[in-house]
Amino acid sequence: MMMSGPALKHVDSHSAIHEAALIEATELTKILDHLVTNNQLDKALEVAFVIVEHWETRTLQHAESEEEGLYKELEESSPELRDSIIALKRDHNLLRLLVKEIKTILDGKGVSDEVVQRLQALILVDLLHNQEEEKILPHH
To answer: What pLDDT, on the 0 to 100 scale, is given for residue 138?
Structure first.
């Protein structure tokens, strides 16, 4: 069984991990929005790929480690959290689906407002997910 690291179990440091990644994603998305609005599409495309990489390496890798470690441990120690954990995993899947859609759009049509909207949706889903996750973490 894979154990989750101490930072994932400690609510303050776990929250800090989420917050830092979300702040970076938000700032990068604002930059992208500005570039798209000002029709600087070459730069915008570069930034869009940086943002996708950010989501993949920061948030989605973190989500995977939560699923392999923290969530399993939480469910074993607190079976009453099962439904909450299922919901949190669904959030992770929504994040993965949005990132996949963004990559498909970038590969097919390039960067556009459509991409910015999906990135903003990613931020909102992740924000709500983090709030829900932090509600169950203190139980551990």
So the answer is: 63
Q: What is the DSSP string of 30-54?
A: HHHHHHHHTT-HHHHHHHHHHHHHH
Q: How far apart are CA 48 and CA 2, in angstroms?
A: 33
* Single-letter code of the amino acid located at 78: S
Query: CA 46 to CA 44: how far, in whole Å?
Result: 5
Helix (H) or strand (E) holding 23: helix 11-37
pTM, entire model: 0.87
Distances (CA, A) of 4 to 53, 63, 95, 131: 23, 12, 21, 20
Q: What is the pLDDT of residues 122-139, one digit of tens each?
A: 999 999 999 999 888 765
Place of tokens 């890798």: 61
C-alpha distances (whole Å) from 11 to each of 6, 47, 98, 104 are 10, 31, 26, 35
